[in-house]
């Protein structure tokens, strides 16, 4: 009978079943999001302003002459970004957009692989299809393809920066983040991390590349001064449309200025404490957890308290989310993942029956998602600090902490490659 059961009920471990289930579903999602939804486009088109700016740049025409009083997408890249985007206008706009979507899909797949490797798992593990499935199920990835913007390349630069920083290839880490800063400065807050970690060489290329590219692009542009006189002031304004920052959300709903200021200060205070606690207690013993969690805190705080925070920026929080696989992650609580749902869900809350309520939920979901995520991470770290304080372990030098043991981590990361993940953590 046992021999019969062997053939009738073949046994497969969970780490083999998960890829069998997710790979066909994920591949179909990739095709649907890119070939159907991406090519179809939507009411917002981030690609056309970039293409038109690149075309004007190649034809020696003014680039920064848009009317910023409209709610249409505007071209906001600096001259260095214009120089890098210029090849897009060599071919016609339709084929250029399709190629850009195809490149974005390949980059996102590469990002899922790099994120898997960052946490110590191989491309053959169950983690890779899970990460890729999660990527393409989110609003942030879907709208990056539908609106056709540069965010997937920013995520690639961020992951390259994190990986190379951990491996102490400092100059190359600076190259990875510097190329993204030359186009859009959304990752600029992450430069605080190499400063804190005394990896000064990162700044040479991270700052040098945008400076050099701007120096090259400046004499090639017709109106580079307009970027400083017109575009930068516009970037500092908190517009009341397509803006999920606290200031933008407050402007749309008519929130009192004093309350907006109080909320922004509160989130900055939470970020400062969280970064201090992570630096003091995790940087030396668990550098992977320190750098990925700190990067997420810096970015989500920037999205909330800055002048512009758009929902599809949330893809830059993927490294923070995957820390859930690591012992000590502040993502191991349900409020944090409720916040993730808010800022990454593709669900719409428009309601026929309760129109005003549904509209309020829809326009607030990203803001409350970021806020809840930040509050959950802050509270998780605050409670740990209070526990350490009650135990008398918060002296001047701080406690002597040890990295998680292989046994601890392997019990937390079920299946496959727990030891590889621990090796990366303890590096």
From TrEMBL:
KW Transmembrane (keyword) present: yes
Ranges in a coiled coil: none
Membrane topology qualifier: Multi-pass membrane protein
A Pfam family per the record: GT87
Keywords noted in UniProt: Cell membrane, Membrane, Transferase, Transmembrane, Transmembrane helix
Chief site of localization: membrane
Subcellular localization: Cell membrane
Sample GO molecular function, one term: hexosyltransferase activity
Domain of life: Bacteria
Region (Disordered): 399-427
One GO CC term on file: plasma membrane
InterPro entries on file: GT87
Transmembrane intervals: 20-39, 98-115, 121-138, 171-193, 200-220, 258-279, 288-306, 312-329, 336-354, 366-386
Family statement: Belongs to the glycosyltransferase 87 family.
Protein name: Arabinosyltransferase AftC
